[in-house]
Amino acid sequence: MLQSISKSYELIFQLLHMPSHARGKQEKDFIVRFLCSIDKLLFGNKSSLESLADTIQHTSFRNGQTLFSSGSRITSWYILLSGSVYVDGKLHHPIKSLGRPISEEDRYYSSDCYCLEQCDFLVIDLKTACQQSSQLSSMDSSITPGLAEDSVRL
């Protein structure tokens, strides 16, 4: 079981490192299925999830790296897949949503986020995602309330 999970992660990381314009239908479908498998990312609107499949990327951070800093502009939404991070006095483990604005008024991070070990993230560039879905609030309306409750407010 653990081996199949790590193989799925390896494949999804390879697909997410491909430029979105180079991803075919089969690759996009695999990304959508992977996103559906993450309990924290339950979308009521499949087209919103498919739109995210075009914008989502994978990135890794080393132990001690800063993911984002207090006062910096919110630019990305992070989904922690492996490792652990320290945000606002709390330790967070996978699978955790980080840096997602909870409301349209959220423009700047209110705390620092440090990686406590090697971490893998799914990263959604909010500007690109907003352009594709016309505005963040329309994207948010397709996300179940459970995600907002589990997100780290920043």
UniProtKB/TrEMBL annotation:
It comes from Macrostomum lignano. This is Cyclic nucleotide-binding domain-containing protein. Residues 45-87 form the Cyclic nucleotide-binding domain. PROSITE patterns: CNMP_BINDING_3. It comes from the Eukaryota. InterPro entries: cNMP-bd_dom (IPR000595), cNMP-bd_dom_sf (IPR018490), RmlC-like_jellyroll (IPR014710).
